[in-house]
Amino acid sequence: MHLNELxxxxxxxLTRSTSKFHIVxxxxxxxxxxxxxFRFERLRALGFNICLGTDSLASNEDLSLFAExxxxxxxxxxxxxxxxxxMVTSNAALALGKPHVLxxxxxxxxxxxxxxxxxxxxxxxxxxxxxxxxxVTMSMVDGEIS
Length: 146
Prior knowledge:
alpha+beta; TIM Barrel; 3-stranded antiparallel sheet; 7 helices; globular
């Protein structure tokens, strides 16, 4: 579900809700349409699973989750790179109903992953991942390199 322009009345409804659903935030599309700032901290405090997505080419020049992560980091200061990465991996796997086979590198999980270049310029490997602005060097889907 997308939640772009939330009012206090919307938050009242969300606070009273007994079911928590998954929210997909598309930072660059959000910017394109000129929406007010995304209420990440408030939604997270209410217990919602928040993921990052790309929306569509109608509001983005590409469908790069790395670009979405970079934009989210710039627009949401103070959010750790580890948490941002989880929004496109383990949080997304939970939203898809596949947290037992997607979103992590573990034995028994599906081998869907990408390899990226590592410059070593940053102390934090998660910061390096979120900052990536070049093409991935390899991708694997269901264990097959593509």
